[in-house]
Amino acid sequence: MTVAIEKPEQTETAEPAAPVKAARRISRPMVLGAIVVVWLVLFAVLRGKQTLTLAAADLTDLHRWINDFNDSIGANRNSNPLFLYFFNEIRLVIDNLVTFIQHLISQPSGARPVPEIGWLGVVGIAGYVSWAVGNWRVALLAVAGFTFFGLQGLWQESMDTLSLTLSAVFVALLFAIPIGVWAGLSDRFNRIATPFLDFMQTMPTFVYLAPLTLFFLIGGASATIATVIYAAPPTIRITAHAIRNVSKTTVEAADSLGATRRQSLLKVLLPMSKRTVVMGVNQTIMAALAMVTIAALINAPGLGPVVLQALQSLDVGTAFNAGLAIVVMAIVLDRVTTAAAAREENARNAKHDFAKWRRPLLGAGAAVTAVLIYLSHTYLWAADFPGDGTVGSHIASAADSATNWAQDSLSGLTNTIRDVITNGLLNPFQTLVTDSPWWLVGAVLVALGVVLGGWKSGVTTAVCVGLLVGTGLWSDAMTTLASTLVATVLVMVLGIVFGVWMGRSMMVDRLIRPTLDAAQVMPPFVYLVPFLALFGPTRFTAIVAAIVYGAPVAMKIIADGIRAVPETTVEAATSAGCNTWQIITKVQLPMSRSALTLATNQGLIYVLSMVVVGGLVGAGALGYDVVAGFSRGELYGKGLAAGLAIVLLGVMFDRITQAAARRATA
Amino acid sequence: MTPTQTEVAHRSGTPQDSEDTPVISVRRLWKVFGPKAERVPDSEELCGLTRRELMDRTGCTAAVRDVNFDVRKGEVFVVMGLSGSGKSTLVRCLTRLIEPTSGEVVFEGQDIREADAARLRDLRRRKFSMVFQHFGLLPHRRVVDNVSFGLEIRGMSKAERTRRAMEVVELVGLAGYENSYPDQLSGGMQQRVGLARALAGDPDVLFFDEPFSALDPLIRRDMQNEVIRLHHEVGKTMVFITHDLSEALKLGDRILIMRDGKMVQCGTGDELVGAPADDYVREFVKDVPRGDVLTLRWIMRAPEDGDALDGPELGPDVVVKEATRAVLAADKPIKVVEDGKLLGIVGDEEILAVVAGQEGGA
Question: Which InterPro entries match (chain B) (predicted)?
Fold first, then answer.
């Protein structure tokens, strides 16, 4: 039966792709239109056939095979030499590092009921280090921030998160800086490393977790390893970039003075790229914090699990309190490292007498910090944060009542928005992609890939589609795809409106940009909390969170693109009598087309990672599969396959949009 | 077309004692960029091709083609050419910042191309130093630390190198700025730092790669005067790269003109102006105020019957501009005399022909 039907279908699959050959002669929008029309017609005819749906508890052979594989690894973990001498060793080292830092600042250590260094000592260290690497303003911020964790009643959780973040950053930098320097010095190594780094950064945070648990079990160690992998690329990239951008003349000058390779590395290249490298370290820290919170899914301790449990039980107040702690920690870490990057330059321009005082002041600060550490080690009042976190419960209950108020009085508005977008945009589109036969959607995707990005991206798309089918999660992948695309469309609308506005007005840019920068620093997790309060646990919540997460980057890229349009071109258009609307639509937007495609690319990737995290609040589909895979053994294989499907979607989106961006610039 | 290398007496102010042993001797030097570059200088056929043909045939670019010259001790040797003529590549080949493809660069009786890494480093640390067009300073170090950088690399102690750096800072007129950072200085002052850094190691030879091209005209003039002053004070051998003919004429004892990697002519300024080797050089020197460059040697004529031979005497190396007043003031032609021997005479017509900008001299 099926074979009989499939035959004519096969010829039809080629049809949407057929006009592509004429793409040069017929305009691209016409081809796209034709593809959509063919799709709609076939959809009307074939609706509901061969959709490859899989019920939540159903498994395919692949999933069962992964389950078995996981079981066999579990059984042989202590006998297989690969594990005995490699994975287990890594795990042990990382585990020791994490436990060591935890005993230092967060967990009871040995016979002591409290960690080695109590809250007073940690606050002292935080302030002192911030002051030493940054300035007194960020030191105050750090002290205030850390004290706030205690007041929230989340001291131990915050310190756990900090311990994991610090261990991961430490290990990541241990590898990332030398690798970055190498990539900066060697063209060949750089060429090899770049595609890997691209790939690692395209992936949503989420998908690192599943395969790692296979090798490193769940818990702090594998959370740290996942974080290292996720957080290292920015530093590698930025270090390589910094080394590469050191002025050629300066390196040549050092050579001409007879510097050895080592001397020119230590005295020229590294000092001159220090500032940029610190910015890379900043990015690594931010990425690590984001990942450590999400690693709650694999039982990493800290603030993440608090948010996670609260999200799952829809306890907005608690989630908000813990989310706030994550935000505060992100702000403190970001400000301190940014100040560290700027410090040397400021010090250079500062008066000399200040520099003279710096050394003795640092010494005095160290002495005070040592006293604080001693106190916190010896006395209980300085070890255990006093009070019972009343501030935290106030925050939680305030958030709760705000939520209740919002749900009571804004529900009309929020529900309307939700229903309009869900019914008007999301549902029809989702129906279209999930209820069409898989081969039809696949063919449409390939055709779009070819038309938008050329033959190469068409081939990549075809491979991705094939593998998606192979994961057995086609239908779920299509649901995620629908949500992602809808969210991306909205991101681009926002991005274009605000980006154009920012690009055209310096003042607007100065007002909005700091907010956008701050928004990008936040771990994706915490975005869910406020929208959960407003919209309840639905797909829509995830989509709104994704929009808010993805829009800043799109806005910034578009604003920069608009600004990069040469002043003279705009002037010429103005002198030709264009009005503002004409300048925007006929000059500025067309000329920043490559920025628009790049914004789409970044928007898609950001949105995808967020839509997946949305699986935590009822967004379903792939995100849910992954989450369920972590918590229920029999769904482990399915979760891993879902992670793979997310990767495939990411690669597909990324390749098509990047190829399109290259076309736009060409 | 062979480069003319006429021997004419030097301009005043250059030490002439040991000019017979050149400091640097360049022989058949080639630098070819591209795949399998080493076959180009070896093949007579490929050598004969123009730059374009070579590119089409082999995918190689010959930046320096068969260059030969000697740099004498204590002189300022200028290499001049337009951009793309290979002059910057040439100067980098001399210290192997760029590895030459073939040929010899003899310094102190040894071919630099044979030197191993340690010897080369030692040469760079003690014998050579270079001043760059874009300064190449270290932005994270103060002026004094930039100047002492070369000494630091040698392994000199901090106190000693700071003392030496301060001397040189003083010498280049940067006293009072030693604790500034490069980005707090103007372009001209930054280049003084570059100059000081080059001088700090007390090298035998200073290489200048278009050091003043990035500077404003007025500052450029100051810096040129600074180089002339330093040359008088420290008497170093200098190899100076420029694309500016007036700079070349102002600073250079001898000038090498390059075009498309080949040397076109090598000689003193008055030789280039007085006897250009080909149309390329002629076009180059067309707008030079000839009276400022040519000496009486270039415009004198043999005495004819009826010339009064009892006029005042001048040497053959007096520049026309300086002789003008004397020639015009005298009512008889000037005798050009060297070592008591009459070489020729110069009258009003000869002077006016040069000063009025007409063709004159050789």
Answer: AAA+_ATPase, ABC_osmolyte_uptake_ATP-bind, ABC_transporter-like_ATP-bd, ABC_transporter-like_CS, Gly-betaine_transp_ATP-bd, P-loop_NTPase
Instruction: Write down the residue that tokens 């043909």 correspond to.
Output: B53
**Quick check: is B86 in a domain?**
yes
Q: Chain B 68-87, CB below 8 Å of chain A: which residues?
A: none
What stretches of A217-315 show up as alpha helix (H) in DSSP? 220-244, 248-256, 261-263, 270-294, 303-312
Say which residues have a Cβ less than 8 Å from residue B219's Cβ, sequence separation at least 6. Answer: B186, B187, B188, B212
User: In terms of domains, do A287 and A173 share one?
Assistant: yes
- B49 located within any domain: no
Find the domain containing A494 and state its range.
Answer: 410-436+477-665
Residue A344 CB contacts under 8 Å (≥ 6 apart), including other chains: A274, A275, B140
> Is B122 in contact with A247 (Cβ distance < 8 A)?
no
Question: Which residues of chain B does A271 touch, with a Cβ-Cβ cutoff of 8 Å?
Answer: 138, 140-141
In this prediction the pTM is 0.78
A644 & A565 share domain: yes
A301 with A164: CB under 8 angstroms?
yes
Query: A629 in the Ramachandran plot: left (φ > 0), alpha (ψ -120 to 50) or beta?
Result: alpha
SS3 (DSSP) at A320: helix
Which run of H or E residues covers position A629? helix A621-631
Clarify whether residues B221 and B336 are in a common domain: no
CATH number where B346 lies: 3.90.1280.20
Q: Which member of A256, A267, A271 has the closest CB to residue B124?
A: A256
Per the structure, the count of domains in chain A is 2
Q: Do B32 and B60 form a contact (C-beta atoms < 8 A)?
A: yes
Q: Does B212 touch chain A (CB under 8 A)?
A: no
Measured between CB atoms, which of B123, B135, B153 is closest to A249? Answer: B135
- Same domain, yes or no: A87 and A201: yes
Q: What pLDDT digit, counting tens, does each position of B277-324 carry? A: 888 888 888 888 777 788 888 888 888 777 777 778 888 888 887 788
A502 and A549, same domain (yes or no): yes
CATH code where residue B138 lies: 3.40.50.300
Q: Express each pLDDT in A150-174 by its tens digit.
A: 888 888 899 999 999 999 999 999 9
Across the range A467-484, mean pLDDT stands at 85
Q: Look at A258 and B121 and tell me if their CB atoms are within 8 Å.
A: yes
- The first and second tokens of residue A275, run together, are 């500032």
Whether B92 and B227 share a structural domain:
yes
Tell me whether 0.90 is exceeded by the ipTM.
no
Residue B342's domain comprises 291-355
Residues B85 and B178 in one domain: yes
**A463 assigned to some structural domain:** no
Residue type for position A523: P
Residue B256, pLDDT > 90, answer yes
Tell which of A404, A423, A452 closes a domain. A404
CA distance B99 to chain A (A): 13
Tell me: do B202 and B332 sit in the same domain. no
pLDDT tens-digit profile of A348-397?
666 555 667 778 888 888 999 898 888 888 887 877 777 777 788 888 88
CB atoms within 10 A of CB A603: 32
Which chain B residues have a beta carbon less than 8 Å from that of A274? Answer: 140
Does B247 lie in the same domain as B114? yes
pLDDT tens sequence across B118-164:
898 888 888 999 999 888 888 888 899 999 998 988 888 999 999 99
Residue B132 within any structural domain of the chain = yes
Domain end call among A404, A425, A447: A404
- Smallest CA–CA distance from B91 into chain A, residue: A256
Chain B interface, mutation test: which of A245, A251, A256, A276, most B Cβ atoms within 10 Å? A256
Look at residue B261 and give its three-state secondary structure. coil
The structural domain count of chain B equals: 2
Q: Do B121 and A252 touch (CB under 8 A)?
A: no
CB contact under 8 A, A263 and B128: no
Distance of CA A613 to the CA centre of its chain: 10
